[in-house]
Amino acid sequence: MVYFVRTAGEADVEKIRAVLAETFHDTYDPFYGADKVSRMVGSWNSAAAIRSRILKKDGEFLVADSGKDIGGMGYAAPYPKMDKTVMLHQLYVRPSAQGDGVGRDIFAELETCFPGAEIMRVEVALLNVRAMSFYQRLGFVEVDRMEEWGAPNSGLPAVIMEKRLESH
Fold first, then answer.
1. Is 116 left (phi over 0), alpha (psi -120 to 50) or beta?
2. Nearest of 64, 74, 63, 73 to residue 2 by alpha carbon
3. How many CB atoms lie within 10 A of CB 81?
4. pLDDT tens-digit readout, 106-160
5. Long-range contact list for 39-42, CB < 8 A, 24+ apart?
6. How many of the other CB atoms lie within 10 Å of CB of 45?
7. Spatial contact of 27 and 124, defined as CB atoms under 8 Å apart
8. Contacts of 130 (CB under 8 A, 6+ apart)
9. What is the mean pLDDT of residues 10-30?
10. Backbone φ, ψ for residue 10 (5° rounding)
11. Could you tell me where the beta strands, DSSP code E, fall in 8-165?
């Protein structure tokens, strides 16, 4: 299926929630169990949380749209604690669309959305080796580790990866 990357709108919220729920369960159930993943999806990816990200003025929220469904999504915004750094908060591709370049295409678009940025940073769950490999192929390198991925007291360790961005 062919997907086109475009800016997400409020009308996409429920479709995005469905992609995130499906992808979170597919990715994280083996590590954390379905119950914990359901709680993560419910709190981190509520309709209100997605809507607020879509409407965030300095952020960029993209979807891969086939005209029939949403195959993936990505969200990035300037990182307030580090000047000229963008945080890639989410990049998820529906399991049936993985391996078709959807994630790469979303990332390629996000990478160009912040012309003043020099670094893009992403936090990846330590057990998510597939995602780490994906980001390494995009040019990210590990720069640090953290004990709490996704939310305070999550108990989920993560790897922090960074990529130098090209000047625009």
1. alpha
2. 64
3. 7
4. 999 999 999 999 999 999 988 889 999 999 999 999 999 988 766 566 677 889 9
5. 40/150
6. 21
7. no
8. 27
9. 93
10. -60, -30
11. 60-65, 70-78, 85-93, 119-125, 141-146, 158-164
Structure tokens at 8: 């997400």
| Contact indicator for 85, 127 with CB cutoff of 8 Å | no
Q: Measure the CA–CA gap between 38 and 54, rounded to whole angstroms.
A: 22
In angstroms, how far is CA 21 from the centroid of its own chain?
13
Rounded to 10 deg, the angle between the 47-55 and 13-32 helix axes is 120
Q: Whole-structure pTM over 0.85, yes or no?
A: yes
Domain hosting 87: range is 4-164
Confidence label for 32 from pLDDT (cuts 50, 70 and 90): confident
Domain total in the chain: 1
CATH assignment of the domain containing 144:
3.40.630.30
Backbone angles phi, psi at 146, to 5 degrees: -140, 155
**Contact indicator for 139, 104 with CB cutoff of 8 Å:** no
Residue type, 92: Y
Count CB atoms within 10 A of the CB of residue 33.
11
Q: What distance in Å separates the CA atoms of residue 49 and residue 100, rounded to the nearest whole number?
A: 28
